[in-house]
Amino acid sequence: MPNPSISPRHFLWQLQGSLATITLNRPERKNPLTFDSYRELTDTFHKLREHSEVKAVVLSGAGGNFCSGGDVHEIIGPLVEMKERNQALKLLEFTRMTGELVKAMRACPQPIIAAIDGICAGAGAILAMAGDIRFGTPESKIAFLFVRVGLSGADMGACAILPRLIGHGRAAELLFTGRFMSAQEAERWGFYNRVVESNRLLDEAKQFASELAHGPTLAHATTKRCLHDEWNMSIDQAIDHEAKAQAACMQSEDFARAYRAFAAKQTPKFEGN
């Protein structure tokens, strides 16, 4: 049953067993973000660090689209007004606040699977990028379109994360032009893990997430943390870092359970400790 401490007002939250689904839910506007939804999403991903009953998260959008980015009237308009009033500190406060959402997603120990259909643009593309696994549909289109509104592609960590997903040259093209990337490109370039039909997208994303949720969740959290932490390490540093991380996992009960199940020719049932 849903944990009462996670009861959002600005998106849908569903907990089925150990699998949580977050659905951006403003389909009439293609699910744009607002100041409030940014903050609430950030708070939710922070809270998930404390909720071991949640083993994996699916992030999706309602109504056939993922997310069209920041709401033109509720975010872009007020930001232009801040610029005209020369409120530079408020603008910096906003950009830091949006970046906190990506930090919260990366620090959240549960794997996040982004299920992407239709439009996935601007901050929506950043949310997809910040996930751990991405499923798309043939109809989905992705654009880091900040340049189209006179802003740089340097938004919410895009210049750091996107090149690591698809390569420097491809990331530079998307960030300089703001053009839409097709689903075929996204899969070929490694942004998508797989492309499925729209009517199967959520089911397949949940099935994949459920498989992860039934795995050794402490070990998954360690993998996610190491994938993030080791970006700035040398290979030798990463090897030492992983030695400590893996030794810690070897102290878990799940490690012992897996051995006992193997010895008994059974499938291990992980419990996350």
Blueprint (SSEs and pairs):
Blueprint: E1 11-16, E2 19-24, H1 35-47, E3 56-61, H2 72-84, H3 88-107, E4 112-116, E5 119-121, H4 123-130, E6 133-136, E7 141-143, H5 158-166, H6 168-177, E8 180-182, H7 183-189, E9 194-195, H8 201-213, H9 217-229, H10 235-249, H11 253-263
Parallel strand pairs: 2-3, 3-4, 4-6, 5-7, 6-9
Antiparallel strand pairs: 1-2, 7-8
CATH architecture of the largest domain: Alpha-Beta Complex
Number of strands: 9
Q: Let me know the CATH homologous superfamily of the largest domain.
A: 2-enoyl-CoA Hydratase, Chain A, domain 1
CATH topology call of the largest domain: 2-enoyl-CoA Hydratase, Chain A, domain 1
Quickly count the helices: 11
Count of structural domains? 2
Provide the β-strand percentage band: 5-15%
For the largest beta-sheet, the strand count, sense and barrel status come to: 6 strands, mixed
Residue share in helix: 40-55%
What topology, given as strand order, has the largest sheet?
1-2-3-4-6-9
User: Ranges with pLDDT <50 over ≥5 residues?
Assistant: none
What is the SS-derived class?
alpha/beta
Order of helices and strands: EEHEHHEEHEEHHEHEHHHH
Average residue pLDDT: 93
Please state the overall shape, judged from the principal axes of the Cα atoms. Answer: globular
In whole angstroms, how far apart are the ends? 21 Å
Task: Report the C-alpha radius of gyration, rounded.
Answer: 19 Å
| CATH uppermost class of the largest domain | Alpha Beta
